[in-house]
């Protein structure tokens, strides 16, 4: 990632990179240049006039100037009910301070600059989706090498800005590989524009399927390039993980289950233009596993780049932004210390959030029918699509009973905080967790937990689980006393065999067995039919003990799937969440 030492201010005005020996925008007028090359180059505002959802990809986010400018124009000229997803790659993210300084030259972009600064993702490699302008615009930042990021992106793009440093300075952003990935992402007749007129760029784009032509440049640059994609359509997804046919906006969707997964998924779908009804069997939502008095955002420690590590890193950053946006005062306790056995890691932005407050805010925005136990078949009587978010009961239906979801019992222990003169001030996490004193119904209470009972669906309060929780808490903070226990709470969570959630269309497992029985001979995609799904039936389940951390991102993934919009996670992560993954693994290993 880029360090602040790399960026400097040429003539104390223009941001420039020492690494590439190039500037971020024209010293004459960066905004005028961007309007001329990029907005005019794609043909705004006509290009998005008839689009309910418009996707634009910029290769090189830089200072955010093109994003701010495009938002400014799109918000003025796009249909009032339209939405835009703006995707941008960036290998060396600038700091908020540098973005603030760079965009301050244009007061007309003040509103857009403030939105960027409020929502800008931390400089961590990976995909980062943020909602701006009350959800009308999604910014999907891809931090990392352009070619690697674009290879993992699943999107259909209406227009491209190519705005990396000059090809002679940063050739990696202008490679044949990058052009090939752009072509795979391009919608029919997608527009492309760039400030450069280099011959090898034009030839490379033409070879990838773009019909290119030269146009007037800006200032001292005589020419630029614009083009239209005329090549063949591409399918990047493996047949057995294919995306379902998008559901028309304004369609009705039933959500079965009103836990944190059901509420975040319901709100994401509602914000994407669907009519959503949530069916909850209990008398109120978030009454089961997500009904504890405190929810913990606890980092998942895995430094690798496997799908599990990538998903949970992205989920944590997404959740922190999501809940801060929901309520700036959502944190009950801020600050978390994680014990690894060898070290102590401190996370000042993590901590404990308030499930009751989350429930009140989310429920107030959604249509909820409580006290109703409903099946997918019954739900389809009044809905165009159904999403099952029922936790451990999600596999109790005929369509889902072959999905591997196991119940896991989890009991927390409540402690009288008045028994301790110097209790901890931060969340302590290790094998278990310990939450510092909270005011629960007028009593100062500490919370420790949670037990982990596989294949156990009973919710009785057990002394053995209290003892287990206390032992784990004592390892974190030796001052724990048995006599301080005042009560407990137990709920059942759903786990999958690989401890990753299930998020996606519900597969017809019997049809999978027939369609993909020859996978033992290798994944030669062209010989396989697209995945057989139960029509317009989806699932978000198996969140385990990380529901509050993973639910916001899972809800956005589900909304993107149903709406046919860009996925906010890399394709390997989507595949690792796909409900059919276990069936595919079995077929590859033992097709008989």
CATH superfamily of the largest domain: FAD/NAD(P)-binding domain
Count of DSSP-assigned helices: 16
CATH topology of the largest domain: FAD/NAD(P)-binding domain
* Count of beta strands: 26
Distance between the termini: 48 Å
Low-confidence stretches: none
CATH class of the largest domain: Alpha Beta
- Averaged pLDDT: 94
Quickly give the structural class.
Answer: alpha/beta
| Rg from Cα | 25 Å
Strand content: 25-35%
Structure description:
- With 592 residues, the chain is of the alpha/beta class.
- The protein has three domains: 7-229, Vaccinia Virus protein VP39 (Rossmann fold), CATH 3.40.50.150; 240-329 and 350-405 and 496-592, FAD/NAD(P)-binding domain (3-Layer(bba) Sandwich); 406-487, D-Amino Acid Oxidase, Chain A, domain 2, CATH 3.30.9.
- It is built from 16 helices and 26 strands.
- The strands form four sheets. Strands 14, 15, 16, 19, 20, 21, 22, 23 and 24 form a nine-stranded mixed sheet that branches. Strands 6-7-5-4-8-9-11-10 form an eight-stranded mixed sheet, with helices on both faces.
- Strand 15 and strand 16 (344-353) form a beta hairpin.
- Helix 3 (96-103) packs antiparallel against helix 4 and helix 5 (146-152) runs parallel beside helix 6 (176-185).
- The mean pLDDT is 94.
């Amino acid at each position: 990632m880029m360090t602040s030492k790399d960026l400097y201010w040429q003539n104390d005005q223009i941001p420039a990179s020492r690494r590439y020996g190039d500037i971020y925008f024209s010293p004459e007028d960066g905004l005028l240049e961007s309007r001329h090359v990029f907005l005019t180059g794609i043909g705004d505002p006509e290009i998005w006039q008839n689009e309910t959802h418009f996707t634009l990809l910029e290769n090189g986010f830089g200072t955010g100037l093109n994003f701010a400018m495009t938002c400014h124009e799109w918000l003025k000229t796009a249909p009032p009910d339209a939405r835009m997803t703006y995707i941008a790659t960036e290998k060396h993210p600038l700091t908020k301070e540098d973005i603030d300084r760079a965009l301050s030259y244009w007061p007309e972009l003040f509103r857009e600059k403030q939105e960027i600064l409020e929502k800008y993702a931390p400089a961590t490699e990976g995909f980062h989706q943020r909602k701006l302008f009350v959800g009308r615009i999604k910014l999907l930042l891809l931090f990392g090498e352009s070619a690697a990021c674009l290879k993992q992106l699943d999107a259909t793009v209406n227009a491209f800005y190519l705005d990396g440093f000059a090809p002679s300075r940063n050739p990696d952003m202008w490679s044949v590989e990058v052009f090939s990935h752009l072509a795979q992402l391009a919608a029919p007749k997608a527009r492309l524009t760039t400030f450069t007129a280099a011959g090898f760029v034009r030839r490379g784009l033409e070879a990838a399927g773009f019909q290119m032509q030269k146009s007037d440049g800006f200032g001292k640059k005589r020419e630029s390039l614009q083009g239209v994609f005329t090549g063949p359509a591409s399918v990047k997804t493996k047949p057995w993980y294919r995306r379902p046919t998008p559901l028309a906006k304004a369609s009705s969707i039933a959500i079965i289950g009103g836990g944190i997964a059901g509420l975040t998924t319901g709100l994401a779908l509602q914000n994407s233009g669907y009519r959503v009804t949530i069916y909850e069997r209990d008398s109120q939502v978030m009454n089961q596993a997500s009904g504890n008095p405190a929810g913990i955002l606890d980092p998942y420690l895995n430094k690798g780049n496997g799908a599990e590590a990538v998903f949970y890193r992205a989920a944590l950053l997404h959740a922190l932004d999501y809940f801060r946006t929901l309520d700036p005062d959502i944190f009950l306790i801020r600050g978390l210390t994680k014990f690894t056995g060898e070290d102590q890691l401190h996370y000042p932005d993590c901590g404990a959030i308030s499930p009751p407050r989350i429930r009140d805010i989310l429920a107030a925005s959604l249509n909820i029918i409580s006290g109703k136990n409903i099946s997918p078949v019954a739900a389809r009587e009044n809905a165009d699509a159904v999403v099952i978010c029922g936790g451990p009961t999600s596999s109790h239906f005929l369509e889902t009973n072959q999905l591997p979801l196991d119940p896991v019992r989890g009991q927390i222990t409540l402690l009288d905080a008045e028994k301790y003169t110097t209790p901890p001030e931060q969340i302590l996490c290790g094998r278990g967790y310990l939450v510092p004193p909270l005011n629960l119904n007028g009593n100062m209470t500490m919370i420790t937990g949670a037990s982990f009972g596989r294949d156990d669906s009973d919710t009785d309060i057990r002394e053995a689980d209290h003892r287990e929780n206390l032992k784990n808490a004592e390892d974190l903070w030796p001052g724990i006393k048995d006599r301080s226990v005042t009560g407990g709470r137990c709920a059942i969570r759903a786990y999958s065999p690989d401890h990753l959630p299930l998020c996606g269309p519900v597969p017809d497992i019997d049809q999978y067995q027939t369609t993909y029985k020859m996978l033992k001979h290798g994944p030669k995609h062209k010989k396989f039919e697209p995945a057989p799904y139960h029509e317009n039936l989806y699932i978000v389940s198996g969140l385990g003990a990380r529901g509050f951390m993973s639910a916001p991102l899972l809800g956005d993934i589900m909304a993107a799937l149903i709406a046919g919009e860009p996925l906010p996670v890399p394709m390997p992560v989507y595949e690792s969440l796909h409900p059919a993954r276990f069936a595919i693994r079995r077929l590859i290993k033992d097709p008989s």
